[in-house]
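Q: My labmate handed me this sequence with no annotations at all. I'd like to see what the chain might look like in three dimensions before we decide whether it's worth expressing. Could you predict it?
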Amino acid sequence: MSGPAGRAAPDSLQGEVIPEESRQLMARLDRIRTWSLSPAFLAIIGVGFLFTFYDIFDINVSFVQTCTQLVAGCTPENALASLPLPVVLNLVGYVVGTLVLSPLSDRIGRRNMLLITMLITGLGSLYTALSGDFANFTISRVITGIGIGADLAIVNTYIGEVSPKHSRAKFTTVIFIMSALGAFFGIWLGLFLTTPASPWPAGLPFALGLESGWRWMYAIGAILAIVAIVLRFQLPESPRWLAERGRIAEAEAVAVSMEARAARRGALAEPTLTAVPTHWPPARRVPYADIFGNPVYLRRTILLFFLWFFGYITVYAYAAGFTSVFTSLGFSPPEAGVIAAVGTLGFVGEAIIMSFIVEKMERRYWLPVGTIVTFIGAVVIAIGGQSLVVDFIGAILIFAGFNLWVSPTYALTAENFPTRARSTGFAIVDGVGHLGGGIGIMVLAPLIPHLSVFWALMLISCFLIIASILAQFTVHTRNRGLEDVSP
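A: Here is what I predict for the chain of 487 residues:
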C-alpha cells in the first residue's frame, strides 16, 4: 500500500518507509563526485543569477540620476535620504515572493518555479524602466523583489540537489561567479549610462550620461530575464525532488543520464546506503509544517535567520548604497561611481578564487574570513583620504569581503533543510533575512552623513561580526550527503 505521492505506507513510530528504489537512487547520486549534468546547464543557471545580481546592484550607481529626476528637491548629495524606501520595499517584495512562491517549488518542482520567478522578475524590471514617477518606481521594485527573492531560494536549492556531495559549495560558488559578473555589469553600466563623462579616475571619459540612462539600465535587465527564461526550459527536474514525490521513473531517467556523464571521467564507486535514511517523516500538506513542526529544523531556522539578517545589513548597505554613501560623504557622483565600479573587480575576483578553494574549509569558517577582508578594505579607504588609487584598493577588498562568505553560506543554508521543504526553509531564513538589509539602510542612512568615512564604514561593516559568531553554531555539512545532514 502506498501513501501520498507514491510513498510507502507510514510506520507509526518512525514515519513513512522510504521505498528501496528511492534509497538506491539517492545513494547512487551521492557516489557521483563531479558535475554530471550538461556543462551548459551551469551556464543556464548562471545567466539567471547574472540577471538577479545585476538587478540587485544596478540601483547602486544609477539611483542618483533616478532620484534627481523623480524626486522633487533631490540632489546627488541628499539622494541617500530617498534610497531606503525603494530598497526596503524591494526587500519586502523578496520576503513576500520567497514565502509565497518558494514553497510551491517543494510541491510542483524546482524547474517549473524557476520559469515563473524569472518571468515575474523580468516584468518588474520592465515596469521599473517605464516608471513615470517615484511611486511607480518604488512599486516596480516590489514586484521585481517578489521574483528575485523566490528565485534565489529555488536556484540555490536546485544547485544543492544536483551537485555532488563533495562539491556542493564549489558549484554554488561557480554559479556565484555569474552573480559577480551581474553586479559588475550593473555598476559599470550605471557609471557608463548615467554619469557625465569625466577624466579618469574621477569618472569615465567615455561615459554617455544619458538623461534616461537609468531607464536603459532596467530595460537591459528585462532583456536578460527573457534570455534566462528561454534557456531555463532546457533544465531537467531535480532527481531528488522527483524521488521524494514518488516519481521514480522520471528520477531514474535523470539519474541514469547523470551517471553516464560522470562515468566518462572514471568508474563510479558502488552506492552505499549507510547515510541514506530508511524513513521519511509523515508527509505534510504545507511545507512550513515540516520546518516549524520539527524542533531540529526550527532551531536551525532561527539560527540561520539571524545569521542572514545581520549579514545582509552589511551586504545591502554596500551593494545598494555604496555610491549614495560616498556622495553623502562628499565624493562627486562620478568619483563615487568609479570607486564602486572598480570595487566590483573584487567581487568577481573572489568568486573565481573561491570556486577553487571553497571546499577546503567548513562553510561556517568563511564568514569570519570575509569579515576580516571587509574591515581591512574599510580601513584602507579611511586612511586613503582623497587618494583614488588607495580608495580603489579598499573598494576591491570591501567588495571581495562582503561577498566572500555568501556562496558557501548559500550552500550551508540549503543543506540544513530536508528535500521535502528545502526551498521553504531557504526562503524563510534567506528571504526574510533580507529584511536586515532594508532595516539596516533605514537605520544607517540618517547616521552616515554625520560620520567620518572611517566610522561610517566601520558601522556598516560591524554587523558581519555578529553573523560570523552565529555561523559558528551551525552544523557540519561538508562532504556529507543531503539526507544524512537533513533527513
